[in-house]
Amino acid sequence: MKVLLIGSGGREHALAWALSASPLLTKLYCAPGNAGIAEVAECVPIGAMDFDALVAFAQEKKIEFVVIAPDNPLVGGLWDRFEAVGIRASGPSMAGAILEGSKGFVKDLCEEIGIPTAAYKRFKDAASAKAFADTLGLPVVIKADGLALGKGVIIAETKADAGKAIDFMFEGGFGESGSEVVVEEFMEGEEASFFALSDGENALPLIGAQDHKRAFDGDKGPNTGGMGAYSPAPVLPPPQMQIAMDRFIKPTVAAMAERGRLYQGVMYLGLMMTKDGPKLVEYNCRFGDPECQVMMMRLKSDLLTALIATCDRQLHHLELRWRDDAALTVVMATKGYPGDYAKGSEIRGLEKARAMEGVQIFHAGTAMKDGRLIANGGRVLNVTALGKDVAEARARAYAAVDAIDWPEGFCRRDIGWRALGR
Ligand code: AMP
Ligand code: GLY
After folding, report:
1. 211 in ligand 2 pocket by Cβ < 6 Å?
2. Out of 1, 129, 182, 295, which could bridge 123 as a Cys pair, Cβ 3.0 to 4.6 Å?
3. Which CATH number applies to 2-90?
4. Side-chain-side CA neighbours of residue 414 (13 Å)
5. Would you tell me which CATH number, out of the four given (3.90.550.10, 3.30.470.20, 3.40.190.10, 3.40.50.720), belongs to the domain 190-317?
């Protein structure tokens, strides 16, 4: 089977690595990919938002299955474009991707079907948003309704900051995504990510993971796309995963089907484990990055078979096997990330690092230039390892980090601290 993978980050490298092991695969393309993905797939220089060129390429190469990994093309309707020309793609459809594309939609859905989440209201003007924020206590959470590159959430510690955040969003600070604003109650607790597959009717659990969103050790500094992750997450033991399936995933799959919003593919549940039980923080319509990297390390079954089953309403016939080992990934980023950073610095020592026991290195923002590997983005490498437990996986991952010679890079040194502190 000829497969086209869309995306260019560490998540996509992990997916490419897992797909390339599939007995069903004959040829893997990736658009646009990166230097690491190029080792397991043929990369083609087409951006993930260039829908016309992606569809034309897939038709020309007679692609039989497409894996759309990032949120932007899914929310923008790329799945529907492939559907229209009869090429199967792992979804969801544009109508289904609203689960990530509109926070207001999700909050209303929670209320209608009884999914636990923070108290909230949706607003189209600043004055009423501020008045409601005043009733919620502090801190208070202000969210732009639409996709804002992961930056559309402001946790305001004071009334003045809440007002500023609301004005900022309505004045277009996050672009179009801020034309509607959600104001919600702050939830206290530990966050965890849980993943499932949906085929539009049936849901199949994947596993849980924990991400580290802040840039610096001790969960300090600005929010990022994620600086590291591990799985399993001790905060999500099997009984909690069962709750995640029964109280969140299954009712959501059913509700989307009832509303005629075809939801096939990955359903990513962001949970806050509060003292009153798990509550929804957000849904995403795709694998997490970097959570996907640790999940692919633990997956023993064939990823391609599972993703195809999501398109064929066959998930109820499938069972996935996972390694008992823990996996942990450390994100190495260019100094300055998530703010301004320079591109083009050289990275050395990867061969030595990836030869270490249990280690895989997924590339996020890399490129080859004159035969040398260079950093080409903010998040650059995901140094990932398996171990018998989180402590061993972490020791192996950091030993590999230390073998990499890249003075212009940095990473957090405390990935996994919550799991080890238990
Ligand atoms: P989101 O884009 O919805 O994932 O939000 C980004 C981050 O903001 C989440 O991962 C949480 O850490 C935090 N967050 C969002 N909503 C809340 C809330 N109601 N209470 C506490 N933290 C929140
Ligand atoms: N790791 C968070 C995300 O992928 O949205």
Report:
1. yes
2. 129
3. 3.40.50.20
4. 12
5. 3.30.470.20
